[in-house]
Amino acid sequence: MTTEVRVPTLGESVSEATIATWFKKPGDAVAQDEMLCELETDKVTVEVPAPAAGVMGEIIAQEGDTVGVDALLATIAAGEGAAPAPAAAPAAAPAATGGSVDVMVPTLGESVSEATVASWFKAVGDTVAQDEMLCELETDKVSVEVPAPAAGVITEILAAEGATVEAGGKLAVMTSGAGASAPTAAPAAAAPVASTGKDVENAPSANKAMAEAGLAPGSVAGTGKDGRVMKSDVQNAISAGATAPAAAPAPVATARPASAADDAPREERVKMTRLRQTIARRLKDSQNTAAMLTTYNEVDMTEVMALRNEYKDLFLKKHGVKLGFMSFFTKACVHALKEVPEVNAEIDGTDVVYKNYVHMGIAAGTPTGLVVPVIRDADTMSFAGIEKAIAEKGARARDGKLSMDEMQGGSFTISNGGVYGSLMSSPILNPPQSGILGMHKIQDRPMAINGQVVIRPMMYLALSYDHRIVDGKGAVTFLVRVKEALEDPRRLLMDL
């Protein structure tokens, strides 16, 4: 009996993914739900578990391949497990003909025509084994590994790091069948990935996360097959306070010519990843497309803080989750959105789509960047339900476990820069949404109350909105209603 392993659902509007890593090979025994491979989309990493126990059969889609939803990845044969596939067979496969073999750019995916050479892990003259990773390419959405098409020696590299290559273009030339032993002098060239001392390449998502965090590969312990470093390992290392060695930037700094300006040796120039370029472009597109404007107000947090302090212990005891400020702000925004529905709407061509629900996006910081999980139907939830949802989504975000569905479909967003100490900011809209509320640091300030100067815990609020459908009156009214609800939380109970 044979069981098929297929691509799972990837999320709304996501139709394809790239195979980043296989953790099993033909002949390996697998247990049910054991992780077989890792797929990468433009936003999340998806693990594919074994649908049944048995023996790994044929692997249909290789690392670096682009696959669609429900595509066949591999097969699993029923059985107790067999001896691992012979290790010596691949070495003998390529004939020692000394023929020339081209290393080509693989298929990059639908509508993706070019990529950037991010890293070469081998140099000219290095001996490589068949399927050993030679380089990594970056597109707008994913990283693609390029394996060696045969065993042999690298004779020429045609596309250097940083070069832009087209799908089907030639990357390098190698001579097949020349040399069978593993390279001994080459590890220096492969240091960015293989510096752990293991003959195992890290997952592309892990390499990218380490580069963004400034971590050296050797500082992160891998939990993948044969000690392979996974993206989750990098996130755990960052959470544990891992820091990059001081000497890590040296190779980059020395790449500048000695005749450059005096400050050049102390500068580090790193090319933006294609993913970061895409993020930058989309943020700028948001500013260029929407008529974005920001209005400000401030809120006295005295009553909310007093109410929270009074009931936080009982709240935790009954609901099993802490009572935070986010549930108050979520409730206040839901209340204000009912009065000013255009802030909860979006533009679709020449139509305005009004939402009769509130899918609240809550921006959350993670070791690898900012994500916005969505709490669906927040307008129907209690304080406890909102706090539980925020806690659960936040934990999944930090662990890199959010699915595409969990980050799509939001109708309004709250961003809390105050947790990082921000006193004032103008948040950028999250298209196609028409409004985003920026929370900030709570700071004691002298305020005039009933003719007396008193010290109150104050917070600045910022509402960025799309002026194409939200007028100034509506935006100011929304922010005033949020302020009123927070300064007198009893208004939320009475829907005032």
Draw up the topology in text:
Blueprint: E1 2-6, E2 16-22, E3 29-30, E4 35-40, E5 45-49, E6 54-59, E7 66-68, E8 72-77, H1 89-92, E9 100-104, E10 114-120, E11 127-128, E12 133-138, E13 143-147, E14 152-157, E15 164-166, E16 170-176, H2 191-194, H3 204-213, H4 231-239, H5 250-253, H6 274-289, E17 292-300, H7 302-319, H8 326-339, E18 346-348, E19 351-353, E20 360-362, E21 364-366, E22 369-371, E23 374-375, H9 383-398, E24 412-416, E25 435-439, E26 443-449, E27 452-466, H10 472-487, H11 490-494
Parallel strand pairs: 20-24, 24-25
Antiparallel strand pairs: 1-8, 2-4, 2-7, 3-6, 4-5, 6-8, 9-16, 10-12, 10-15, 11-14, 12-13, 14-16, 17-27, 18-19, 20-23, 21-22, 25-27, 26-27
Helix pairs in contact: 3-4, 8-9, 8-10
Family: Belongs to the 2-oxoacid dehydrogenase family.
Pfam families: 2-oxoacid_dh (PF00198), Biotin_lipoyl (PF00364), E3_binding (PF02817)
Catalytic activity: N(6)-[(R)-dihydrolipoyl]-L-lysyl-[protein] + succinyl-CoA = N(6)-[(R)-S(8)-succinyldihydrolipoyl]-L-lysyl-[protein] + CoA
